């Protein structure tokens, strides 16, 4: 009885703010008629493809940037590493609008970098034209996705099996063989999990996208926003679209969890 009473607040919060809204969305958007209308709308199918492409590219770029940063942090003294992690984690505290505003101040039509290049003879509209599109959005996403990758990789790098590294060094193994045969297998599950996490975040983010490109870019979060916010809102279609977004993000995170579970089953032995 005591355990039930202790868990009751969590159960109430989960029920009121997750299960109840999800049930209402299912009732609103899970009918065959609405799902068929969703599937038969070419723009919405294209939005799903473009969202997956944007999330995948942003996640891959964040992993590519985050790996060397995490490796460098793992080699620092603990006190220095702690301060560096605080600085790197700062983008996680910013809202999407703040991130977009910061990039506009740098790379927008009146941004600092754009104005410097315009002073050298360029056209500000041409210079900043790429920024208000998928490339600029991927760059902005990478800014707040990379810290997530770094913070996930640093603990793994700090807990690598040093005995294997020492044995490889004593046998004269080159660094690339150590990276491929020892570090790679130990780091691979976290790399996959971090990629899935940041890709799912990018897939569902809309604040930065809304501030940079408005509703001009055809991706799922912006289409969902337009269905809710514009005049003549289509709530059944918005509910169906949100279910698709939820299903895709859940599938991506399931891949991450299964990857880690399989790795633990193969490499972690019971005592």
Written overview of the protein:
The chain has helices spanning 2-29, 32-39, 42-74, 78-88, 96-107, 112-119, 124-127, 134-158, 162-170, 175-204, 207-213, 220-229, 235-267. It is mainly alpha-helical. It has one domain (17-267): MetI-like fold.
Quick one: biggest sheet?
none
User: What name does the CATH topology carry?
Assistant: MetI-like fold
Low-confidence stretches: none
CATH class: Mainly Alpha
CATH-assigned homologous superfamily: MetI-like
Strand segment tally: 0
Structural class: mainly alpha
- Kindly estimate the percentage of residues that lie in beta strands according to DSSP: under 5%
Using only CA atoms, what is the Rg? 23 Å
The number of domains is: 1
| Helix coverage percent | over 70%
Q: Which second-level CATH architecture applies?
A: Orthogonal Bundle
Mean pLDDT: 85
Distance between the termini: 34 Å
């Amino acid at each position: 009885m005591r355990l039930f009473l202790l868990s009751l607040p969590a159960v109430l919060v989960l029920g009121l703010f997750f299960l109840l809204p999800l049930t209402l969305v299912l009732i609103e958007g899970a009918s065959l008629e609405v799902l068929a209308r969703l599937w038969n709308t070419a723009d919405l199918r294209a939005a799903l493809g473009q969202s997956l492409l944007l999330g995948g590219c942003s996640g891959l770029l964040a992993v590519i940037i985050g790996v060397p940063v995490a490796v460098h942090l793992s080699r620092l003294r603990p006190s220095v590493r702690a301060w560096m992690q605080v600085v790197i984690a700062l983008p996680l505290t910013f809202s999407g609008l703040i991130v977009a505003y910061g990039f506009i101040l740098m790379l927008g039509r009146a941004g600092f970098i754009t104005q410097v290049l315009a002073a050298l003879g360029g056209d500000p509209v041409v210079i900043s034209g790429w920024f208000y599109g998928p490339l600029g959005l991927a760059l902005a996403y990478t800014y707040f996705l990379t810290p997530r990758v770094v913070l996930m990789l640093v603990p793994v790098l700090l807990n690598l099996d040093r005995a294997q590294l020492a044995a490889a060094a004593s046998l004269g193994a080159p660094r690339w063989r150590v990276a491929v045969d020892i570090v790679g297998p130990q780091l691979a599950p976290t790399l996959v999990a971090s990629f899935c996490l940041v890709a799912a975040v990018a897939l569902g983010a809309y604040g930065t996208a809304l501030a940079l490109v408005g509703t001009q870019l055809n991706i799922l979060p912006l289409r969902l926003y337009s269905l809710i916010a514009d005049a003549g809102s289509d709530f059944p279609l918005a509910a169906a679209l949100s279910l698709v977004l939820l299903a895709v993000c859940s599938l991506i995170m399931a891949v991450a969890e299964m990857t880690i579970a399989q790795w633990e089953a193969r490499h972690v032995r019971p005592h």
